[in-house]
Amino acid sequence: AKITIKSIIISGGVSSMRAASCVILVALVASLAHGISFYVPAVEPHGYAANEEVDINVNSLRSLSEILPYDYYKLPFCKPTHIRYKPEILGEVLWGDKVQTSEYRGQMKKDVACQLLTCDVDANNAEVKKNVDTLEKFINQGYRGYMNIDNLPVWNNDTTIFNGNCQGSIPKEQLYTNLRGYAIGVHKNCRGKTLINNHLAFRIEINPVVAADGTKQYRVVGFTASPHSVKHQPDGGDCRDVPQFDPRAADIVPLTTDDIRGDTKMYWSYSIQWVEEPSIKWATRWDSYLRTGPADTSNGIHWMYIVTSLVVTVCLALVTSLILLRTLHRDFNRYNNPLPDDEADEIGWKLVHADVFRPPQRVQLLCAMVGNGVQVVAMFIGTMFFALMGLLSPAARGGLLTCIILLYVFMSFVGGYTCGRLLKYFDVQEWKHVFLCACAFPFTVCFFYFVSDIINATHHASDAVPFMTLLTVFCLWLCISVPLTVLGASFAFHQLPIVNPVSIGKLAREIPAQRWYLQPWALYVLCPLPPLLAVFLELKFILSSLWQGMVYYVFGFLAIVFVVWVMTVILTTIIAVYYMLCNENHRWWWSSFIAPGALGAHLLLYSVYFFHTQLDITSPAATMLYFIYMGLISIAYGISAGALGTVASMLFARKIYGSIKID
């Protein structure tokens, strides 16, 4: 699809930080690409001749309140005798988004007033009656049917629930109308009984084009559906060869689950309206989908928040620069040019020069965590690069998730190199520590994903991963990720060691009592707040896209916010470490890692708030899955912030202690 990229150039940052430089480079590339359009590789437009058959496929059943997705044909819908499946990439399999054939069919440019599905009606009615309790349960849980035509997903056309005639209140997540998929029924609170949406009114927008051979063809550029509950006549005569059929007519009687429990004969039906839209090109057909998400419709909020964040970050940078440069300049003058009558007593951060680079406790774990964090940051930068280049269009189904997995695997070299450099720096270069880096975070992800897969498999969810797919993911880690980590560490081990600007004393200096705001608990509570506030709005949009069925594709804004976040993490950590050193606390290594992100604790707390205020998840399985996934995201956030903070603090300490004279 053709995507217009919005971004601006952000200048500044810490030039010595490789991660920050890479992020600024991404923002620069995005700004240079402003207004440039890209086509997604391997996604070619398909033209249909008039009256040519157009297949309407089905995907899955999903609910905003239950999280667990299911196979579309888990419910007793009318289905073909032989179901065909579209080949899937890794991301589609993990997401549980299968593409299957259906009994819904259309002919290009041929409107259909009402058409009954051609499956065995008697056999289907027996199946519906047998599974009516399950169908009723899924309807009341707000499940929606996902379909697609020409790789374009169906979207509800903003039709109100039961044409706005609900007499009671229904769950808030079922009030959303501008969402992907269609409601398979109407909640029992609406009319006192559960209604089955057995009629779908499709509106398919097409764009006329002239093919290379001169023939006129049509391309699908829009696909919406309006679901209706219709109690057809016993013989289905009201939907056979009729010139007109209005499912909203006042004389239409809705179909309830109680009718199914009785002797009512049920029919599945649909209508199709083809609408020519010359103004919508195939390359921009996804624009209307992308504008449905709040992240794209609220550009003014985006810019206001970004400008506010930039102003706060610039002010933080200026205050930091004034405080540090002024204080450090005074310190440098005092330390390097002492007065003749000065007793040259060491005070302030110079007092701990013999301990500032002393290896911390559990240094091997610190090296592994920093390596894992740098790997996650590198993966994110790579994903942002491909997204800003337009190579991760939603038209490439499962492409984003596949890209994240593969980039994380291949960025193992970067994580291994970072871990190896730190291991050699601390003189603990052993291969067992490298394998700790290769296994620490990936093993955590694999373990909890395996737990979530067991939950999905127990509930027969469609994103329960088959054994061969699990084996594939395991092989990606064991056969590619681990060797790349070892290769990166080996490369680091063969480089010259990093030399400290000052020597380390034999005995560690005693640390005096610290002020309350320099206590570990205060640092871990206060320092993560500025970075989290820098990404708060974008985080809300991302969580809405992930858990509320919205669409998120404003990667230009996300790139800017990421740059702001990196700068905030670095500045916040440097300030904290500087004042720790000024108060003669030389145990700053772990504080520089934990303080910027608190290992994701703040993000996890926000996810709890989001769960209780924005979602309506009730089942224990769905709740467990939500917190497993958000826990993994929080850990990734925490180690990423920690890696940036540790590397920035290390460079800062080396810079200031390399600028003074030590007797």
What does this structure look like?
By secondary structure, this protein is α+β, with helices and mostly antiparallel strands. 47% of the residues lie in helices and 10% in strands. It has 21 helices and 14 strands. The chain has helices at 18-32, 90-95, 121-130, 132-140, 188-191, 257-261, 287-290, 294-297, 299-336, 363-388, 399-410, 412-425, 431-458, 467-493, 520-526, 529-534, 536-547, 555-582, 589-594, 601-614, 620-657, and strands spanning 53-55, 57-62, 70-71, 105-107, 112-116, 144-149, 152-153, 155-156, 182-183, 185-186, 195-196, 199-210, 216-228, 269-276. The strands form 4 sheets. Strands 2, 3, 6, 7 and 9 form a 5-stranded antiparallel β-sheet that branches. It has a 5-stranded mixed β-sheet with strand order 5-14-12-13-8, with no helix packed on it. Helix 1 (18-32) runs parallel beside helix 10 (363-388), helix 1 (18-32) runs antiparallel to helix 18 and helix 12 (412-425) runs antiparallel to helix 13. It starts with 17 loop residues before the first helix and ends in a 6-residue tail after the last helix.
List the helices and strands and how they pair.
Elements: H1 18-32, E1 53-55, E2 57-62, E3 70-71, H2 90-95, E4 105-107, E5 112-116, H3 121-130, H4 132-140, E6 144-149, E7 152-153, E8 155-156, E9 182-183, E10 185-186, H5 188-191, E11 195-196, E12 199-210, E13 216-228, H6 257-261, E14 269-276, H7 287-290, H8 294-297, H9 299-336, H10 363-388, H11 399-410, H12 412-425, H13 431-458, H14 467-493, H15 520-526, H16 529-534, H17 536-547, H18 555-582, H19 589-594, H20 601-614, H21 620-657
Parallel strand pairs: 8-13, 12-14
Antiparallel strand pairs: 1-4, 2-3, 2-6, 5-14, 6-7, 6-9, 10-11, 12-13
Helix pairs in contact: 1-10, 1-18, 9-18, 10-11, 10-12, 10-13, 10-21, 11-14, 12-13, 12-14, 13-14, 13-21, 18-21, 20-21
